[in-house]
C-alpha cells in the first residue's frame, strides 16, 4: 500500500488536479461534520425555537407557519443552523488546512497555534449576537404603528436570526484571515498599520450594515470588538515579520545593481577594496 501513496511535497506544492481533489475531500469532511451537528438541532428543535422566539413574543409578536410545509422547512433550517455552530471546529480546520500546505514548516506551526483561537472567536461572536438580538428585535418592532400587530413568518424570522448570528461569528474571524494573509506573504504588518484608518472606517460600515437597527449601541457592540481584533492581528503580524527579518540573509537586502561586499573586510580580492563599488 505504501507504494501507491503520493509523496507529499515538503514545501506544499501540488498540481491543479491535486488541489481540486484535496478541496473536494475537505469539503466532504466539513459537510459530513455539519450533517452530524444537525442531529442535536433537529432533536432539540422545540426548545430552541421557543428560546429564540422570546425576544419577539415579549413584544407581542407572533410566529406564523403559513404553509403546509413550513413547519418541516423551519425545523430543517434550525437543524442546519445548529449544525453550522456545532461543526465549526471541523469546517474551520478544513478551511485552514487547505491553505496551510503553501506555507513553510515554521509558519505551519505558527498557523496551527493561531487557528486554535478561531473556534473561540467564532463562537464568541455568535454569543455576542445572541446577547444583542433582544435589543435589535426590540428596536425594530418599535416601528410598528399603533394598533398594528407583528405576525412574522417563522422562516423569515429564523432567516434573520441566522444571518445576524453568523455575521457576528464570521466577523470575529477577521484576525485569523489577516494573520493568514501575513503568513502567506500577502499582507505585511507595515501595510496593516498604514491602512488602519481605512480599516476602522470599513469596520464601522460593516457593523452598520450587519446590525439593521437605527441605534448606535448595536453597531458599537460589533464595531468595537472588531477594531480591537484588527489591532491584535497587527500585533501578531508584526511579531511574525520581525522574526522573518532576523532570519533573512543579509544578501537579500542588496540591490540588484550593487556589487556584493561579502568577505570584503577580510579578503578584498585581487582588485582591492576600492573596486567594490556600485555598478554603473
Compose a concise summary of this entry.
The protein has twelve helices and two strands; from the N terminus they run αααβααααβααααα. It is mainly α. The protein is flat, with a radius of gyration of 26 Å.
Q: How would you portray this structure in words?
A:
- The chain is an all-alpha fold and about 280 residues long.
- The protein contains 12 helices and 2 strands.
- The protein has helices at about 15-45, 45-50, 55-60, 70-85, 90-100, 105-115, 120-140, 155-170, 175-185, 190-195, 195-210, 215-245, and strands at about 60-65, 150-155.
- It has a two-stranded parallel ribbon.
- The longest helix is centred in the C-terminal third of the chain and has 32 residues, at about 215-245.
- The protein is flat.
- The termini are far apart.
- The model is unreliable at about 1-5 and about 275-280 (pLDDT under 50).
Amino acid at each position: 500500500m505504501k507504494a501507491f501513496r503520493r509523496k507529499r511535497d515538503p514545501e506544499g506544492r501540488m498540481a491543479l488536479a491535486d488541489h481540486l481533489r484535496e478541496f473536494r475531500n475537505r469539503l466532504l469532511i466539513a459537510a459530513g461534520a455539519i450533517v452530524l451537528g444537525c442531529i442535536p438541532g433537529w432533536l432539540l428543535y422545540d426548545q430552541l425555537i421557543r428560546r429564540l422566539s422570546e425576544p419577539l413574543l415579549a413584544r407581542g409578536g407572533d410566529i406564523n407557519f403559513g404553509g403546509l410545509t413550513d413547519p418541516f422547512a423551519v425545523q430543517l433550517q434550525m437543524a442546519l443552523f445548529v449544525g453550522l455552530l456545532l461543526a465549526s471546529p471541523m469546517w474551520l480546520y478544513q478551511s485552514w488546512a487547505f491553505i496551510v500546505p503553501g506555507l513553510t514548516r515554521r509558519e505551519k506551526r505558527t498557523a496551527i497555534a493561531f487557528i486554535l483561537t478561531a473556534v473561540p472567536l467564532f463562537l464568541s461572536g455568535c454569543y455576542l449576537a445572541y446577547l444583542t438580538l433582544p435589543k435589535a428585535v426590540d428596536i425594530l418592532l418599535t416601528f410598528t404603528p399603533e394598533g398594528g400587530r407583528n405576525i412574522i413568518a417563522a422562516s423569515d424570522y429564523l432567516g434573520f436570526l441566522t444571518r445576524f448570528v453568523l455575521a457576528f461569528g464570521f466577523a470575529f474571524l477577521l484576525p485569523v484571515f489577516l494573520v493568514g494573509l501575513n503568513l502567506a506573504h500577502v499582507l505585511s504588518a507595515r501595510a496593516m498599520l498604514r491602512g488602519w484608518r481605512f480599516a476602522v472606517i470599513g469596520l464601522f460600515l460593516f457593523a452598520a450594515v450587519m446590525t439593521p437597527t437605527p441605534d448606535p449601541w448595536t453597531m458599537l457592540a460589533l464595531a468595537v470588538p472588531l477594531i480591537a481584533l484588527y489591532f491584535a492581528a497587527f500585533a501578531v503580524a508584526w511579531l511574525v515579520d520581525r522574526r522573518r527579518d532576523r532570519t533573512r540573509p543579509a544578501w537579500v537586502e542588496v540591490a540588484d545593481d550593487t556589487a556584493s561586499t561579502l568577505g570584503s573586510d577580510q579578503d578584498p580580492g585581487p582588485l582591492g577594496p576600492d573596486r567594490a563599488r556600485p555598478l554603473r
